[in-house]
């Protein structure tokens, strides 16, 4: 081509590039004085629905690139007169960017713009592997009037909607719910086990059996068809009658046994075959009674006393018992009955 024609062709290509990239896409080239006309839908609500439903469907499907498709190359870009825009990231490159973001823990940290957790709010992944709230990034671009990453200041980035933070939040919520449920089930199981099993600690075991006894008493009182007050009065009356009988027996004089009675009482002692003093728990021995063993001889001066109730004691032991007793006439240390005594 002639030089003049080549220069004209180059000028037309550059002019076409300027008009297609710098001017408004709805601005008419033929008549600049005519106002640009924008197509408006008849019903604004339908337009909002058309704009919102695809986003919801895409979010339900999975991750997607938020940036619109790049415009076709102009003639100047095809001829190499103007630098062509960088091609968009492929799916494999996006996987690498996401892997780098996961390695840095971007989704687990708060948003760098608003410093709040992501939770279930939409989040976007930049081609520089930084993650932000979708609304925060849009507000940042609107107020800064430039497209650069708020963290690394990289310009002309690409954005992709991801759901890593939402998945982490759901996993955390599920873990917390499971922990609360396991804690509730364990506490309930422990309460049932504690209700029917006695603890190992001494004080706790005593308290456990006291509570069980109280429950039995309460159930007995609750299911008893008789009058409780009358029942308790009868018990008190029986106890008082028993005390009076025992007091009368204690005050009653016991007749002194005869010689034949003492022989019968001595035979009962021999038949019982017990040769230890119930007070000092040492061996008994008497000239008139057989000893349990020849080696177990009592000390000298410790004589034996036979009671009318057929119990045998050391004389010093019985005298000490009578001396320390607060009653004027103490009963037998074993059977608690009044007695007469005889030295043997």
From TrEMBL:
**SMART domains linked to this entry:** RING
Domain RING-type intervals: 111-153, 277-336
What the entry lists under PROSITE patterns is as follows: IQ (PS50096), ZF_RING_2 (PS50089)
A Pfam short name: zf-C3HC4
Keywords, A to Z, come to: Metal-binding, Zinc, Zinc-finger
Which terms in the Gene Ontology molecular function aspect does this entry carry? zinc ion binding
Show the ranges annotated as biased composition (Basic and acidic residues).
Answer: 44-53
Give positions of region: Disordered. 33-57
Q: Which PANTHER family match?
A: RING FINGER PROTEIN 32
Q: What is this protein called?
A: Ring finger protein 32
Protein species of origin: Takifugu rubripes
């Amino acid at each position: 081509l002639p030089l003049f024609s080549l220069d004209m062709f180059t000028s037309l290509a550059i002019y076409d590039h300027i008009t297609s990239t710098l001017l408004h896409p709805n601005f008419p080239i033929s008549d600049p004085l005519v106002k640009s006309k924008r197509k408006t839908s008849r019903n604004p609500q339908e337009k909002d629905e058309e704009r919102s439903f695809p986003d919801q469907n895409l979010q339900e499907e999975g991750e997607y690139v938020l940036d619109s498709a790049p415009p076709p190359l102009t003639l100047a870009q095809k001829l190499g007169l103007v630098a062509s825009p960088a091609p968009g990231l492929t799916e494999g490159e996006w996987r690498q960017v996401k892997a780098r973001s996961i390695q840095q823990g971007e989704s687990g940290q708060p948003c760098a713009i608003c410093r709040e957790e992501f939770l279930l709010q939409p989040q976007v992944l930049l081609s520089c592997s930084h993650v932000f709230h979708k609304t925060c990034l849009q507000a940042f671009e609107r107020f800064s009037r430039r497209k650069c990453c708020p963290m690394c200041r990289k310009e002309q980035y690409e954005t992709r909607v991801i759901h890593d933070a939402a998945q982490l939040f759901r996993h955390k919520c599920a873990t917390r719910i499971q922990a609360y449920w396991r804690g509730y089930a364990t506490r309930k199981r422990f309460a049932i086990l504690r209700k029917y099993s006695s603890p190992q600690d001494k004080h706790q075991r005593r308290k456990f059996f006291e509570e069980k006894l109280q429950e039995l008493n309460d159930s007995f009182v609750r299911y008893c068809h008789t009058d409780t007050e009358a029942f308790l009065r009868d018990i008190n009356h029986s106890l008082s009658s028993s005390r009076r009988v025992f007091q009368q027996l204690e005050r009653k004089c016991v007749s002194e046994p005869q010689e034949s009675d003492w022989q019968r009482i001595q035979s009962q002692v021999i038949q019982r075959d017990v040769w230890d003093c119930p007070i000092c728990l040492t061996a008994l021995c008497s000239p008139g009674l057989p000893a349990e063993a020849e080696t177990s001889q009592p000390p000298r001066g410790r004589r034996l006393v036979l009671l009318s109730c057929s119990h045998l004691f050391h004389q010093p032991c019985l005298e000490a018992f009578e001396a320390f007793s607060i009653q004027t006439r103490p009963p037998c240390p074993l059977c608690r009955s009044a007695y007469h005594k005889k030295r043997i």
